[in-house]
Amino acid sequence: RLEDAAGGDLKTTVHALAGTEASLSPEAEAAARALAVAPELPEAGPPPPGRLVALLGLLRVLDQELAETVEPRVRTASVRNAGTALPRESTRKAPIRPRLLEAFESRFPALSFAKANDLLTGLLPGRKLGRLGIAELAILLAFFARPWSEAGARGETVVNRGRLDDEGVEELVHDLAAILPVRQKLESGQDVEPGEITRLESSALAALGRLGSMRECD
Questions:
Q1: By the 8 A CB rule, do 92 and 124 touch?
Q2: What sections of 7-48 are H helices per DSSP?
Q3: Is the pLDDT of residue 210 over 80?
Q4: pTM of the predicted model as reported, rounded to 2 decimal places
């Protein structure tokens, strides 16, 4: 699904992956074009070094855009207030109700919400959010960048998401979740099949396209 980029029609490729509202920043476009002209993946076996270099470049741009576009929007008073209001087992400082976390994990099965309590505790008064990686940002987007009704509770959109709609937010969360396991295998030196690499590339490019929509204001 990245082949069109090699021929110059990158816009068509991004729209096919992330919808017609998607767009790429100049940095993301340059990284996507470098990946499109990198050595092809074999039918089996490890990817060529040139392909890995281009893929890691795309992932670095994704990290940068998440840090610039998403992280400031989840470190706000609105998100903190919404996090404080999430239903908990007893008091306002108790763990999130297990049924709610189970419902979220059912909707986003590639994400683990087992540690969401630790993350969401950082939103309580007097607490601080720690480092936010891809998994943490995906969880915060799932809770605060779309309306939801799960396990007898409701949530509203409190994150500025630009032109990204409800479906786009959900797809962005799925994209980010799909990136995590394959990237971890790559970074730990494990063998990764060509099909996994292709899914990683497609998910990263789709996420970058949706982040482009998130940057744009209505």
A1: yes
A2: 10-18, 26-36
A3: yes
A4: 0.89
User: How far apart (Å, rounded) are the C-alpha atoms in residues 42 and 65?
Assistant: 30
Give the H or E element holding residue 150. Answer: strand 148-150
For residues 141 and 163, what is the distance between their CA atoms, to the nearest angstrom?
Answer: 15
**For residues 87 and 67, what is the distance between their CA atoms, to the nearest angstrom?**
28
Helix, strand, or coil here: 155?
Answer: strand
- Each residue of 45-92: pLDDT tens digit? 888 999 999 999 999 999 999 999 999 999 999 999 999 999 887 766
Cα separation, 14 vs 29, in Å, equals 10
CA-based R_g, the chain, Å: 18
Instruction: Please list the residues that pair with 150 across neighbouring strands.
Output: 153
Asked whether the beta carbons of 197 and 41 are under 8 A apart, the reply is yes
Sequence letter at residue 94: A
Burial of 58 (0-12, 13-18, 19+ CB in 10 A): buried
